[in-house]
Amino acid sequence: MTTLAAGDSAPSFDLVDADGQSRTLASFGAGALVLYFYPAALTPGCTIEAIDFTAHRAAFEAAGYKIVGVSPDTPAKLARFIESKDLTVTLLADPDKTTINAYGAWGTKMLYGKAIEGVIRSTFVVDVDACGKGTIRLAQYGVKATGHVDRLARDLGIAAE
Q1: Domain boundaries, the chain
Q2: How confident is residue 8, by pLDDT bands cut at 50, 70 and 90?
Q3: Which residues are catalytic?
Q4: CATH numeric code, 28-155
Q5: Predicted model pTM
């Protein structure tokens, strides 16, 4: 499994959002991007994380960060997730796991005491330049859903709302 670290080039991507629109790393513009990978929409841990990012979105944006989640779900499932949980963060579909693999967020993990292959809950802060190229500032693998957004905000010096 490839893992990324601070200073590495951020893999570019071209994924579809919940509205069926193509989104690339460059399409988010220059600035800081919080890119988080989660296993599946509408599951307990992923719902906690998405709701937490939504609740903190204004504080992250005020500090200059855009928030984008990526999962292997379809755009239709992401749309249901957004609607059912009133999410305001951008969610991207990666059903073939190309971007998930490029960021090293796919591999063996423990689920209920059993080793399985799947999405490793991971978060990256990517600094995107004016040309749309990204550099990893922060890479976190194997994060826990509960409390993760609060810890990330503290690590980035973002005041809680």
Answers
A1: 28-155
A2: very high
A3: 46
A4: 3.40.30.10
A5: 0.95
